[in-house]
Specification:
By secondary structure, this protein is of the alpha/beta class. About 40% of the residues lie in helices and about 20% in strands.
Length: about 280
């Protein structure tokens, strides 16, 4: 029997496949279209709504984004459900390439993760010197800590911090540690409702509209760096990958025009991503 996380992954993969099938018949014959499997943070931040019309105007190529957690995006891309991958879990991206599912990985842009929590900060995480210190304090306090629990890039980062702190929070699942199996927006909504703490990427936090009494309590630790990568799905593994169109997209995103557009995207006067393609 599938566990709940496996069921969620299977459902997400099915929905992705259904969406791809529907989209395949929704474009005019001869129209140039590629599919990008992407982490949710880039989609939820509004970045694609800003970038993709510029890309289409420059190239005539339509980009359809399938936005899921990084873990699911990697699985979808492994299955050939897309042409390009944009996610934020570098070690998993490098393994994806090493295993032959993708061509070379390139840095695309970065921002950072932050820990958010109640404005009165009952566990006093704001006094933490590092993310590891903050997580250690969170495990000892009275307030809950919510986790996406979905194998996303944010969840992978969270688990790496717990590991560095020498703590297995899953042993406290259902008590102070709440694994939600949800996207970042839903996790932030639950965090606000519970008066809990959580880890989020800064772009999603800035664009999140239901902050209530939540605020940033920990930021600036180098371990919270959040790098995004871009990879073409390997056409030798999946012959239907539109290699030429995908390469045009990657070249534009990592080139001067795309990098300038990424830098220019702001919300509430704040730059959400910093381009750093090499």
């Amino acid at each position: 029997m599938l566990n709940s996380l496996s069921r969620r992954g299977a459902i997400a993969a099915l929905i992705s496949a259904m969406l791809l099938g529907v989209s395949g018949g929704s474009y005019a014959a001869g129209e140039k279209v590629i599919v990008v499997q992407s982490t949710t943070s880039t989609q939820n931040s509004g970045l694609y709504d800003y970038l993709l019309p510029k890309f289409k105007a420059a190239t005539g190529i339509t980009v359809r984004v399938v936005a899921v957690g990084t873990g699911q995006a990697l699985k979808n891309a492994e299955n050939g459900d897309g042409d390009v991958l944009i996610v934020h879990a570098k070690s998993s991206e490098e393994k994806f390439v090493a295993d032959g599912f993708g061509l070379s990985r390139q840095n695309l842009m970065y921002n950072d993760f932050v820990v958010v929590g109640p404005s009165d900060d009952p566990t006093e995480l704001s006094g933490s010197g590092t993310a590891v210190d903050a997580f250690t304090r969170a495990s000892q306090g009275s307030a809950a800590f919510t986790s996406r629990g979905d194998n996303s890039g944010t969840h992978k980062k969270e688990m790496s911090i717990w590991k560095a702190a020498g703590i297995d929070p899953t042993t406290a699942s259902g008590s102070w540690y709440r694994e939600l199996g949800a996207g970042m927006g839903a996790t932030l909504n639950t965090t606000a409702l519970m008066g809990a703490y959580t880890l989020t990427d800064r772009a999603t936090w800035i664009s999140f509209k239901n902050k209530q009494n939540l605020g940033i309590v920990v930021q600036g630790d180098p371990s919270l760096f959040n790098q995004y990568g871009i990879i073409m799905v390997n056409p030798a593994r999946h012959a239907h990958v539109k290699q030429e169109l995908a390469q045009t997209f990657i070249d534009w995103m990592t080139g001067a025009e795309g990098q300038a557009a990424i830098a220019a995207y702001t919300l509430e006067g704040k730059q959400l991503f910093t381009p750093n393609a090499e």
